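Lecture 7 notes. Example A: sequence first, then its structure tokens.
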Amino acid sequence: MWTRRGALAGAGALAACAPARGHVAGQDDPRFAAIEARVGGRVGVYALNTADGAVLSHRGDERFAMCSTFKWLLAAGVFYYAARGGLRDGPHRSPQLSDPVRFDESAIVPYSPRVQENLARGWMSVEELCEATVTISDNAAANLLLDTMLGPAGFVHFVRATGDEVTRLDRLEPALNENLPGDPRDTTTPAAMAQTMRRLLIGDGLLSAAAREKLLGWMIASPTGLSRLRAGLPEGWRAGDKTGTSDGANNATNDVMIAWPPGQPPIFITCYLSHSTAPMADRATPRTRRSRASSLRVGAKRVAWWACFACGENFPLEIEGELRLCGFYTTRYVEAPDKQSAAAMAAEILFADPDLALPEGVEPHPEQRIYFEGVEEVEEAEPEPGFAFFPMEEAFS
């Protein structure tokens, strides 16, 4: 079965085989056209082989909603300004990495597990927020970091300083995931993102060696992309990435990656899939379906299928025309190297599910959460059930 994730894995496999020096694959490349025909929507890909400058591109200069793929760049911006004494605007000064950022329950937005864990403490360091933003894609952490940079405008100021005149951010999480057709807000192009990754992650003096090492370490450790671009790489490659996801009619399934072939300089691959007609449910990619015994290796990581038995609490939902505070039970199947990573990936998928979307104008409940009653390794994914909803007032009366 072809899924959105399968499309990314297939695109990654093609992009990893970057063409000869100076060649650029055109818009009519039949390999990418075949992927688009199977999953619907638009696929944008740009791959840059830094060993020889070879480029492979399909819709490389078209705009796509970034969703959470901007978060590695946000962390890079924090490192950039910290090394230069902070971003200053009148009395405002962005903090250093060890400085605390204080928050309360008003900071919580859908999918904010690390910030939620620290609500009682009431603060996290700037570096802790960066790690949560890149590694597990914590949305509240990203918003708190954006606040230290004067919001999306400060982020764009940094992006322009890197030489990227294309990438733009206009809103906070979760509004930036809207992905309306033709809307330029919160977008980039595959080409612009890949070139910005090259400038920041391997050279040009924009980040210190220590900052690059830390940022790359977080991207490599992130579990959210193990079944996306990384799943299409040849065995033995090392990779780090940042995914982005939005579901519903205006869906987006994205991944941006740095990958190292054995003994070779890195290849940058950016892939954006927008408005696909394929379902979002976690299904095996064409590559992983061949491994039915949970023994797949992506790069140097062993990846297994996990069944994640989820319970949600305090979700404001519209039920039969009435706003109710609801809980739910469901199961999600994900590929991950360990139980903790599987739970993090499943939580991200659930928070992006349109069935859990907040009604317009409704704020998330301060005690809204998802937890897992069990996470078990299984041989392969099974068809996923829907949600079993229950009213919270009855469940806890």
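Example B, a different protein, same format:
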Amino acid sequence: MGGPKAPQGVEESVNGNLARIDEQNLELSGRLVDYKSEGLPW
């Protein structure tokens, strides 16, 4: 989303999201993060 003015490219965004999925475990459950694993408020 964001088209040509998006803050990051598709590859960077997808890789970041996949990394967040791969790092999940019960300890990290319930958190909200962006593609760089930075916490986001609920």
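Note on Example B: The longest helix spans residues 10-22. Residues 32 and 38 are 8 Å apart (CA to CA).
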